[in-house]
Amino acid sequence: MEIVDASYLNDDEKILKEEAMIDIYLSIKKAKVEKKISYEETKFHEEVYSPISANSGIKVEMEKRGWTRSGKIPTPYVNVLTGEKIRSSVECDFLKHGIAVEVQFGKYAFEALDLDRFLELQKRRIAKALVMILPCHSFSKQLSTGPGYYERAVERYKLRKIKHPAVFIGVSHGNSK
Fold first, then answer.
1. CATH number of the structural domain spanning residue 6
2. 165 assigned to some structural domain
3. Domain count, the chain
4. What number is the average pLDDT over the span 137-146?
């Protein structure tokens, strides 16, 4: 795959260290994405890129570089109406040195969910910064689902006026065809 663009937001303290970003960039560059025949109504029998393949390709490469899945992190709440304790948890794709990484090639609603998860991790001082890897808009049109895309995610982050460090990385399939 290839990196089309990256937006660094609010990283004045340089939390997103060069070493971590090199790992992430190399993982994207080494990842492969496969094509498949779509059975979705809007792209029936069209050859499209597989979002599952794109997602897993990057995740496999991240794991090779020592990044581990976060697993479920307990995030208990108290019911404001009853005072009852509520068990809850949150997870992200990868968490290392306070950097939460989300690889998102799924439906666009998951883009917002991933951002909310990061904010929860940041609030609990588990993550200091977010890296979100998404397809760029032109690539998203070539995927079989209706995924979120890089350009929209960056705008949504800015609109929410979030002050935490983040890098949004827009990727494409990397094939010259």
1. 3.40.91.20
2. yes
3. 1
4. 85
